[in-house]
Amino acid sequence: RQRFSAEMGPYWYLMPTVEGTWRGLGGSDRGAHIAQLMVAIPVAGLVWWLFRRASYTIALAGMLVGAFLVTPHAFVYDLPLMAAAILLYLRTLPSSDTPSYGAALLAGIAPAVVLATPSLAPLAVIAHAILFLMILRTGGLSKSVL
Questions:
Q1: Are 76 and 121 in contact (CB under 8 A)?
Q2: Domain residue extents for the chain
Q3: Res 16: pLDDT
């Protein structure tokens, strides 16, 4: 584990995950694991909730986005899953819901921005979290809860 951390030093920005972001910002191994766990547990529960309450399409989109929030070692080459999640999410929206289209577009563009500018790496995790919240809202989680 320590060897992996040492070798990853300049490349943490290639991991659009909570752990990758934490480590890229200079955080410790222990802090990264705690932050990852604090995100993973509620996200896993919310994905379960989506599969119990929402349509299959929106639940699948939530699972794909949730995978990036739960998994500590996803890399940028795993991001096609995010594109599939965005397409599934957009499929559930009425054509008049322009703000949601814009936010989904942001989630899709954020990883490309991160690759071009490593200092903006935290944007990828933030974009994933925003998209996940939008999926939860579309899936029926009350606006008052979010």
A1: no
A2: 2-138
A3: 86
